[in-house]
């Protein structure tokens, strides 16, 4: 392993999101995979024997012979600084806390800690300043290095995959005009359910109008993300979200039909310009995984579409299209983004790049 790269681990490395982490980290300029974990069913096996590889381009050779270790602090070498978590929400809560207490920085996709008051729910394009919760968290939970008594381990989370692209699109509107109400109807890809996910006989020739737990996340995470941080506390943004989540027979890419009510009146050209002109902290810092532009505004009547547009900005960009006036709200538009790249592994990776640039991983 080259010395200048930060050694990282992937928790839940065999699953749909774990595989994306491996793919995105294979040639990363700052990070190098040092450890892979999975459940007790897979621990002790070689990665190539335990994982059914699902992504194009094949399994990176460097991980084939790595032996999966249990997801526990004692199984992970101390020189690993950063852990990316792709654990199921049900498994993540306690073990992510144990790992942070043991001194690891945990960048998690799981929902377990997202709404904890002292845990940043982070999209670097949206709320990079919320990382200031990290010392608050270390102080509150006593996560300090026993030798230096300085904070070391912590948890940072990224939002639900559908929330991520919704809030990336809402951010320029929130900043420029304010928001009072958002209505979102999602059409979510199969890979969002992990692997093997939804049975073929349930989803072929069908749409399933229910995804467990999804609507409550869409109705609560945006306000934390767009909330303001002061004196170690986040005050949630003051707007309401109504969400309906549907599973559709698309492999990758969540599409969302969004209507918004703005706080201040705006002409449609101003709304379009807010999307087009938006640049966030990742673009200003030139982070390795940052898409530029972060938001792609489509003008064709029939775009964006999952098959054509999900890989925009290497799967890290948010596509917006069909912007038009709404007779009940003010404006409506379509949002589309990749769920396992920006919505999961790529989102956590961008979080980690921000943490490096802010000095939290020294
Ligand atoms: N898929 C998406 O689009 C998406 C988007 C955003 C966020 N997320 C979140 O990301 C996480 C992973 O999702 P996924 O779709 O990749 O799930 P998945 O395909 O079911 O993979 C789960 C991974 O966790 C491991 N695991 C399961 N139970 C465990 C336990 N008790 N202890 C340790 N490891 C355990 C599995 O290992 P084995 O192979 O040994 O079973 C596997 O590596 C979830 O929290 C999910 O909500 C997913």
Any overview of this molecule?
The chain is of the alpha/beta class. The protein has two domains: 168 residues, Rossmann fold; 178 residues, Dihydrodipicolinate Reductase, domain 2 (2-Layer Sandwich), CATH 3.30.360.10. The protein is 30% helix and 22% strand. It contains twelve helices and 14 strands. Helix 1 packs across helix 12, helix 6 packs parallel to helix 8 and helix 6 crosses helix 12. The structure holds NADP nicotinamide-adenine-dinucleotide phosphate. The site of NADP nicotinamide-adenine-dinucleotide phosphate (NAP) has 29 residues, from helix 1, helix 4 and helix 12.
Contiguous uncertain segments of 5+ residues: none
As a percent range, the share of strand residues is 15-25%
Largest sheet: 6 strands, parallel
Q: Can you tell me the CATH topology of the largest domain?
A: Dihydrodipicolinate Reductase, domain 2
DSSP summary, beta strand count: 14
- Which small-molecule ligands are present, each listed once? NADP nicotinamide-adenine-dinucleotide phosphate
Question: Mind telling me the C-alpha Rg?
Answer: 20 Å
- CATH C-level class of the largest domain: Alpha Beta
How many helices? 12
Helix content: 25-40%
The string of secondary-structure elements, in order, is EHEHHEEHEHEHEHHEEEEHHEHEEH
Number of domain modules: 2
According to CATH, the homologous superfamily of the largest domain is Dihydrodipicolinate Reductase, domain 2
Terminal Cα span = 18 Å
Main sheet: strand order: 3-2-1-4-5-6
Structural class: alpha/beta
Average pLDDT:
96
The CATH architecture classification of the largest domain is: 2-Layer Sandwich
Principal-axes geometry comes out as globular
